[in-house]
Design goal:
Helix content: 25-40%
Shape: globular
CATH topology of the largest domain: Rossmann fold
Radius of gyration: 18 Å
CATH class of the largest domain: Alpha Beta
Order of helices and strands: HHHEHHEHHEHEEHE
CATH architecture of the largest domain: 3-Layer(aba) Sandwich
Oligomer: single chain
Largest sheet: 4 strands, parallel
Amino acid sequence: MLRGVLRGIKDLIYPDYCLSCGNKIISRAGQAPLCPACRCRIEENTPPLCVSCGRQLTGQAPGKNLCRSCLKRNFSFDRAFSPCKYEGVVKKLIHEFKYSGKDYLGKFLGKILRDFTCAHPLPVGYIDLVIPVPLHKDRLREREFNQAHILSESVAGVFGRKTSSGILMRKKPTRTQTELGFAQRQKNIKGSFAADGSGILKGSDVLLVDDVLTTGATASEAAKTLKEAGAKKVYVLTLSS
């Protein structure tokens, strides 16, 4: 609450600036603080896409439908989708969203995700549960919000569902994954999730929501936990990859 009050005071005193390039802008309610030029520089994942991680395929031989990274890896999730590339403007916005307390960016970023799911109906069939990747309680206390939960709130309605928090839990703290390679990420995240054992997951198709898919280690470990608790299919939807 205090953070929000201080941000409100700051907005009254200082002019708004584009979060990407720093140029002064006229801010409007419900819009991210981006200048028109930077809005146009948001890079999308466009077909052809990897049928595993959802990234745009580049430099692949004709007929190939897996990126080079996914050819070497086995994931527990069934398929992942992301509207944006994790670079440039979007990378900057996500960093500000998660690490600089700018939770208001969730509305703009969530709209990107919602518009993507509406414009490109995902080939996932029927979705029973929309579940955000959880934060450990210590990280949640530090950050004061879970970015994945905010994003999942934006897309759950597209599938006629509400966000199902509490079904997947982060039971132990882990190092940040940012500077780790794939093998290190797998080791770091292994055994860090727990799932509801009441049977609610039995035979379900789950949409797992997060902000970024990088190596896929976190999403894969979360999907593994959900499937061990009875989920039939686990699809992953992230803002960027």
